[in-house]
Amino acid sequence: MLYQLTSIDPSTFSSNCTLPRENETKVDLEELKTSVLYSGPVDPAEWVGLRKSYPLLLYLRNNLLMLAILAFEVTIYRHQEYYRCRNNLTAPVTRTIFHDITRAHLDDGLVNCVKYFINYFFYKFGLETCFLLSVNVIGQRMDFYAMIHAFWLIAVLYRRRRKAIAEIWPKYCCFLACIITFQYFLCIGIPPAPCKDYPWRSGNANFNSNIIKWLYFPDFIVRPNPVFLVYDFMLLLCASLQRQTFEDENKAAVRIMAGDNVEICMNLEAASFSQHNPVPDFIHCRSYLDMYKVIIFSYLFWFVLTIIFITGTTRISIFCMGYLVACFYFLLFGGDLLLKPIRSILRYWDWLIAYNVFVITMKNILSIGACGYIESLIQNSCWLIQAFSLACTVKGYRIRKWLISLCNLLQTT
């Protein structure tokens, strides 16, 4: 707010950078004019986070919103603490909404089932949620750091067993925290006031704007997209909650309330599994909850095969052919697959998940060609684009669409 005073005039201490000569850079003149250095006077205060803004409320709304949320949080926690002290109550073991709902009430009807999952959804499906968010980060970014996320996803899934994943999970959380911090510094970059450009914009560098964007380098022309950090933060938030869940699984009080997350025995026969299953039989549909269970456990297998088939036929590529082969291979067994030993069933699904993660990783690696070197590939290796169905799915890259249309036309002829 002090910076908004009329006595502070940014034009008195702003810098005016001069355009480099032709032999000093390989960037086009039109592209240079969009740079922060040469598009106008450079205010050094903007690098710190200060700028002139009218009206002022729009400039401060995020700070005021954060202050209001923090004040609301403190009010709630203080009120709860005061209420418990006044009534001689103790804090519940688990921070849940419905304190009287436990694992024993999960199969007592649709209402109790909904209440249970409101309390303990992340306790039961937090790990799967983290995997989904990890794939979301990879799909939204499709750059160098998304490739690192893909390798970490492979490393975590390779452990397979829940206990083994819990051992490596603190390292995964540490990685997410470090990489977000590092990327934040990349988004800040160096101060533009000295009028010094980055070395990858010099005349000796062989970087274009698309490669710089894919590598997530700091730049004054193609600035790193800070929205990507929001996806990384959501993944870090859920990963931190999942780390707490792994710790809660070892507490007896939590297991009594929420149930355990012990994996099923691999040596059981699926056909005789009902003898070892403590859950009531839902096949005869005595309630709406039983109807939902029948739909999920009886038809989810075919729904997954439908999704695999759609995935394999949406695009024509080598990767999609693998999905079609997997779909028809599962259809060959049909419902008999679910009657095989559990170890055999999980082995098939492990291979399917492994292939899916492999395709995600390879598409991320090949995105450097689809987004960074697409024009060179169109001129020299048009068949590669068709074979792997290369396409840049992230906005912001400078790609001439008519070249891709020309490649498709040449392939058809």
From TrEMBL:
Residue span(s) of domain Piezo TM25-28: 270-401
Any one Gene Ontology MF annotation carried by this entry is:
mechanosensitive monoatomic ion channel activity
Alphabetized InterPro entries for the sequence? Piezo (IPR027272), Piezo_TM25-28 (IPR031805)
Which Pfam family is one of this chain's hits? Piezo_TM25-28
User: Where does the chain cross the membrane?
Assistant: 56-77, 120-138, 144-160, 172-193, 220-241, 291-310, 316-339
Record keywords:
Membrane, Transmembrane, Transmembrane helix
Is the Transmembrane helix keyword given for this protein? yes
Q: Name one GO cellular component term.
A: membrane
Q: What is this protein called?
A: Piezo TM25-28 domain-containing protein
